[in-house]
Amino acid sequence: MRRLASVASLSVLAALALLGGCGEPQFSDAEKKTVASLALNTLPSLKPDTTNQYADVPAAAALGSTLFFDTGMSRDGTVSCSTCHKIDRQFQDDLPQAVGVSHTNRRTMPLAGVARNPWFFWDGRRDSLWAQALTPLENPLEQAGNRAAFAHYIKRRFGERYERIFGPLPDLSTVPANASPLGTDAEKAAWNAMPASQQDDVNRVYANIGKAIAAFERSIEPEQTRFDRFAIDLATGAKPEGDAAFLPEEILGLKLFIGKANCVTCHNGPRFTDNSFHNTGVPPVQGLPPDRGRVDAVAQVEADPFNCPGKFRDGDESACRELRFMVKDGPQIMRAYKTPSLRGAADRPPYMHAGQFSTLDEVVAHYSKAPLAVEGVSEVHPLDLSERERAALVAFLKTLSD
């Protein structure tokens, strides 16, 4: 009994150390500044996408929404963007790896705030939201279609809507029903037999499909959570009340997040991501194809005909700085993956690029132990967090969900 009483006393003392005499959370000025920088009210207005002149056109967003949920935008008529990006699940699917027409090797990423990313997919193999939107359409594991078939589908189902937004559709009367440079052998042969001008016509329609879907996805933004209400009160000096009042373990978790655990190094800003790529020693999944992350994506984004410097970009090339100055090689991009936003993370297990961890507790344990990477060099160093500290970090992460 004495031991139990002693443990309870230590817990009370630990909680009091986080609170002032009046029960207020104790943060240094530097800590307050860091916490304030993470609050959603500091998120700047969404910048125009100069590579997509239709990005903020309501009619384009409306068409993009229709296409996003349309299973006709797939080879067999059973898969849409929303198959993996479910509207009631933060636009993700709760699966370790996404399943479209077939089984993929990566986790579906949520879409809140996606238009603010400089790079897309876990490895950054696309450099604009509209170029990203095109990729699953022809991926044989996802929607498995081909761009000639999509052009015909748009003309048949949405011709008038398309032309009100993008102008006249090209003459598709002699375009094969199925053709693509990325499709089956028959589709590739049909594509190669098309004159270059006809290929450009189909590619232009295809690019506009991506631009419409991107216009819709720009509307998906993160929502305020308990953490944001706490952060605003902390910054203004107001007394946190209701759900904005953090429990002692949540305060400890926040302090660890911005301090000892150093999570904020990569999970920073109001979206809790630095938008960059890191090797954190996450193990591969047995049975999946080899996945080397960012190092293999560099060639893919450079070769993409729909990338920023390509002919289907709107505006001038000044928007293409990310691609011009990206890191192209070096050990730091080997098995490096994008830092995901932590907003809403507590409600969307499993975690990591292939769903390697089932719970936030497993994620925190991984970073605490920091195992060596199977390839390249992990940036993570052992934190040796106590059981109580790991639990506190998880408690804080849950405040980023509402």
TrEMBL record:
It comes from Mesorhizobium vachelliae. Residues 248-401 form the Cytochrome c domain. GO terms for molecular function: peroxidase activity. Residues 1-20 form the signal peptide. InterPro entries: Cyt_c-like_dom, Cyt_c-like_dom_sf, Cytochrome_c_Peroxidase/MauG, Di-haem_cyt_c_peroxidsae, MauG/Cytc_peroxidase. This is Cytochrome c peroxidase. Its main location: periplasm. It holds the Pfam family CCP_MauG. Keywords: Heme, Iron, Metal-binding, Oxidoreductase, Periplasm, Peroxidase, Signal. It is found in: Periplasm.
